[in-house]
């Protein structure tokens, strides 16, 4: 049977549901039993990553994320995935606390981008926390690549908050402008590096550069990891 995938979710809840939907669509199946069994902890009470990483005064989410991972493993998950790029700032603690593989969304995405677009700077459309912690910068630096970000962190953060608040239409012009800015800065490819942005990315109008969605990369890795046992 297939290995159980455990999802460390709830960051945010709509993005977790989107991950599950894309995983369902990506799995070759003719019947229920052909699909990947999932254990999902959609914990909306994970302390704010924005408050902790950007504002600097919020509660550290690490203990909650570690506890979620351990609970999923205790429930039978053989592989863990976390459909939140920003939360990968806490990846070492999570991966070090469990005995099963934890798929690294950031490193997998960097590898996918490098394989498909091997030259030039890479644009990052993600939470400012991702820029602050440097998780994508490090992943791409290991591949000899530079990353660039939109200049206005506040506008990017406002787009994330709009999507979380059910006002995705307000985020679209911000993301379209940010994509154009990255292209003007020399990027030919950009990472959709926030799972909230994954919700609206298909609605971006004629982006001036290629887009690789980190959520799709994680979905593909889950399908590959859920091998028959």
UniProtKB/TrEMBL annotation:
Sorted UniProt keywords: Isomerase
GO molecular function, one term: amino-acid racemase activity
InterPro entries given in the database record: Asp/Glu/hydantoin_racemase, Asp/Glu_race, Asp/Glu_racemase_AS_1, Asp_race
Pfam family for this entry, one: Asp_Glu_race
NCBIfam families for the chain: asp_race
Entry similarity comment: Belongs to the aspartate/glutamate racemases family.
Entry protein name: Aspartate racemase
Organism, as annotated: Lutimaribacter pacificus
